[in-house]
Amino acid sequence: MNAYEEHADEDEQRQPLMMGSGAKVGVSAPSMSNAQTLRPAGSGETASTRGLTRTISGRLSTHSQVKFKVYKRRFFGLFQLVLLNIVVSWDWIAFAPVSSTAAAYFNTTESAINWLSTAFLFAFVVATPFTFWALSKHGPKTSIIISSCLLLVGNWIKFAGAKSNIFGVVMFGQLLIGFAQPFVLAAPTTYSDLWFSASGRTTATALASLSNPFGAALGQLISPFWVTTPAEIPYSVLWVSIIATVAAVPSFFIPRKPPSPPAPNMEMLLAADHPSANSIKHDLHVLASSVEFWLVFIPFAVYVGFFNAFSSLLNQILEPYGFSEDDAGIAGAVLIVVGLVTAAITSPLNDKYKFYLWFIRAAVPTIAVMYLIFIFAPPTSSIPYVYVVCALLGAASFGLVPVVLEFLVEILHPTSPSVSSSLCWSGGQLLGGIFIVVMDALKSGDEGRPPANMHRALIFQAVVALIVMPLPLCLGFFGRKGMVRLKRWENEQASATERDRDLHADDMESADTLGS
After folding, report:
1. How far apart are the C-alpha atoms of 194 and 256, rounded to whole Å?
2. Beta strands of 291-436 (E only): which ranges?
3. Does residue 180 contact residue 154 with C-beta atoms inside 8 Å?
4. What is the reported pTM?
5. With DSSP H G I counted as helix, E B as strand and the rest as coil, what are the percentages for the chain, rounded to 5?
6. Least confident piece of the model among 149-163, 201-215, 226-240, 446-460
7. Residues 401-454 pLDDT 10s
8. pLDDT digit string (tens) for 357-409?
9. Domain for residue 489, yes or no?
10. What CATH number did the domain enclosing 92 receive?
11. Are 483 and 42 in contact (CB under 8 A)?
12. How does this protein sit in the membrane (predicted)?
């Protein structure tokens, strides 16, 4: 019997795991002390590890049994995460595809309009420590509710500023929405770990995480059609505010946690003890001392940062060469939609075959090379050229996101998924804001050929992308193959085997009793 088998509804057969004196929970008594199972990545058998083992043992003795099961209601919360990530990203990018029109409406410069995107990304970084607290101490539902409240207030303040043509009020509303983003963008790994079994986590993480750039695709595509004159700016903000309101309200009705865990995950069993400040500090220490974390974190942050900057500046990159705002909006949509389709195909395959590392080794060089090739795309004035490069860049970038997030959870188990996810996204948003400022500063003046071109910015983007490319390619080499083991998956497999063995022994004992 498969210990991770998913059931159609709550009335179907549950998977019991008996505990008590001499019984097992996920791992046998001998393997409970096994450093392979309990030791965080990159660490030895420390006092913290032994303390974790003792905590597990203490908690096991207080339960009679745990039933592993997945519930249909998990899709309600997942759908809510998808909606909120779409809206919050749409808010971020709304003015970027119509930057020149927005600048005309607010009587300001395109650089000032760029700051709406930049400030949004910096606000993400400021809110990240509070995201740690919300996800680790109170779980994804609290995080989702906080995001919804900030999203509601921020959007209507932003509309008030746009309607009255006060740019400062618009910026304040944008900052509040920026504070909302980390609470939903960092939540997917925690939510999938809480509600989904091993056979569905990567797909769930992909759906929730990649809905964020899908919102950016909608903004890239729809904003140019909504805004054809400066006077239409307030109405585009109004429509997004209404959509945000509709998306936010259901957040208050999603379930907090499942009645029983979906799989024999030790972090789930320790949910009541793990979210202390000391545990978060310990997880941060484990991540900081893990070479593998840095080999993944640095390129992830750089590539997410460049995606944010590239998406925000795409109109300004293409416009000097004769492309229209509509052309730039479609290019941005192609970048994201092709990426989403790719992720929709690769994520279930990763769930089934667990080829995280090989996918990373293939996707990272592709991203770096596409940034290099794009340097030569705008001067050609060829729309197909731009679309093809954007499609390939999107496919590699979007396929990479859920794979990296789940890969880190696997190799750093049993650290909290919220910590690694929040840090990765925070790094990407911080670098995104910095890259927008740097690339805007590299824009040529009126003396450029053509004027205001961003050729130097594209060179900067490609060079940095190529510099960080070798880092993840080193994963598993130089005698560190054991540090990229999928520890969470191995633990669950061992748990399933041990449970089936115990059930078989119980059946044999019962048969012997009946026979005598």
Report:
1. 10
2. none
3. yes
4. 0.71
5. 75, 0, 25
6. 201-215
7. 888 888 888 888 878 777 888 899 899 999 999 999 999 999 998 888 899 899
8. 999 999 999 999 999 999 999 999 999 999 999 999 999 998 888 888 888 88
9. no
10. 1.20.1250.20
11. yes
12. Multi-pass membrane protein
481 found inside a domain = no
14 domain-assigned: no
Using the CB atoms, write b or e for 486-503: b if 16+ within 10 Å: bbbbebbebbbebbeebe
Domain range spanning residue 437? Answer: 74-253+291-473
User: What is the domain count for the chain?
Assistant: 1
Cα dihedral 480, 484, 485, 487 sign = positive
User: What secondary structure letter does DSSP report for 134?
Assistant: I
Sequence-separated (6 or more) residues with CB below 8 Å from residue 265: 26, 193, 488, 491, 492
**Cβ contact 59:20 at 8 Å:** no
Two structure tokens written together for 471: 């880092």
In a domain, 207, yes or no: yes
Looking at the chain, the number of H-run helices and the number of E-run strands are: 21, 2
Tell me the H-state helices in 106-232.
Answer: 110-133, 140-163, 167-185, 188-195, 201-226
Q: 């109170």: which residue's tokens?
A: 138
